[in-house]
Design brief:
This protein has nine helices and twelve strands. The chain is of the alpha/beta class.
Amino acid sequence: MLEIKNLHARIAEDGSEILRGIDLTVNPGEIHAIMGPNGSGKSTLSYILAGKEDYEITEGEILFNGENLLEMEPDERAAAGVFLAFQYPIEIPGVATMEFLKTAINAQRKARGEDALSIPDFMKLVKAKSADLNVTMDMLKRPLNVGFSGGEKKRAEILQMALLEPKLCVLDETDSGLDIDALRIVSEGVNKLRSPDRSMIVITHYQRLLDHIVPDVVHVLSKGKIVKTGGKELALELEKNGYADYTGAAA
């Protein structure tokens, strides 16, 4: 599904190196958790996968289903099945959430050579998926993320993911700012998307998210490199002992 080989990247504006040789393979159906201290490069990795232009790749490659992801524009990556759930979803005044969802779905369908959904079929689909995530019709009528609470923004974003049905879901600190109830709802929405044909990368600081979205593999990222890989028990170790044992490992 996803193969990252010796990936090095820096901030385009000032040349600061962030990723210093990432190697990562994610097979179909797997959930990989990436944990690490602030500034380790977790969010940078997610942005590069999605195609954010603020970064320059200086070495390495990323293959997605055998294709060179780095040669694709962000919209091409999305059409190929890459989805990024942001840590802080942005507000877009003037764009109704429902219209945004319809445009996104039909753009994906067009890229796959499929006909656009009719309005009745679209409404039926949205209502079914929204119910699972406690997303109300009032939320869908409002401008995208405008005036939403932190939990509402995350639920709306997981709704996008459920509707688009991507092949690779990258969740960048989806648990950030969520209370216990919102975390449960969002996690249940994510777990319903688990599939033998869909992979996920879950980026988080905390074990609590991984109590709900149980990973197959856990990686520790420090100073731009993966310095430790293990099973779900590794997250419990990090919760207990912190990152002190790993912060010097990538030097």
